[in-house]
Amino acid sequence: MINPAVAENHNLGSGEICRFRLYRALSHVKMSVGGGKMLQVFYANISTIDIEDPKNLRFCGEKLEGMHNKKAIRQSMGARLLLCKALSEQYPGIPLPPKLTENQNGKPYLAQGGIFFNLSHSGDYAALVLSDEEVGVDIEKLEPPKIAVAKRFFSKPEYDWLAKHPANFYDLWVLKESYVKALGTGMTTPMSAFSIVVGDEITLAGEARNDFGFYLFKQPEGYRMAACKRGVREECGLSEVNID
Fold first, then answer.
1. The pTM is what?
2. What gap in Å lies between CA 187 and CA 220, rounded to an integer?
3. In 3D, which of 169, 171, 210, 176 has the Cα closest to residue 193?
4. Domain assignments of the chain as residue spans, ordered by start
5. At what angle do helices 156-164 and 169-183 cross, to 10 degrees?
6. pLDDT of residue 19
7. Which fold would CATH assign to domain 15-232?
8. How far apart are CA 68 and CA 45, in angstroms?
9. Is the pLDDT assigned to residue 28 strictly greater than 50?
C-alpha cells in the first residue's frame, strides 16, 4: 500500500512509484459458503497490542523478521492478528497461524482454506476483507487532502473531479488502492491507468464498469476504508473486532 504522505514527500514519478511494495495483503483460492457468496470487512484498533507477547509473536513469525520500528511492528502484527482472529471465528478448520504462499507478483495468499482475503493498516487500525472472490481492502487515517499527489498519480478525470471535491481525496485514494490490490498485480498497474467514478454508485470508468464492486466506509472515526471485489456487487458485512 502506498501512503499518500510517502508519495508526497518523495515527489515520486509514475515510474518510480513502482519501487514501493503495494502489499500488506493476503489472498487466493475460491470457496462457496453455504452455497452462496459472502463478503465481509473487519477492522480493529491495534494501538494497544503487546509486540513482545510470545503468543502474538508466534502468530506473526517470519512476518516481523528484519523489522525494528515499533510502530511498523505493531501495525504488521495487528493486521496478522486480525486475520487470525477472523479466520478462527469464521473458518475454525483452518490451522493457525495460517500457512501462506505467494503468487507470481509476490502477493501472499492462504495455502489452504479456499478463501480470498486482503489486509491493510494505517495509524491505529488494521482492516481485513474476506470473500469467495478476489478482493482488496485499504484503510487510511484522514489528514489534510493532498491534491498535488492526485495530480501526479490519478487519472485526469479523477483529478478534475477532486479539484471540485477536495474533501473526497481519501475516498478516492482508498478506492483506487483497494482496486489495485484486488487485481493482484501490485504497482505494475499505475494508479493513473484507470478511473473510478464516485457518484450514487461507485464504478470503474469505461467498459469494465461492471467487472468489480466497490464499498466505501467512514468507519472507524477519523479514517476512510474501502473494499473492492471482483465480480457482481453484493451485500457486504462490516464488523469491528477486538483482538486484545
1. 0.84
2. 27
3. 176
4. 15-232
5. 150
6. 28
7. Ribosomal Protein L22; Chain A (3.90.470)
8. 21
9. no
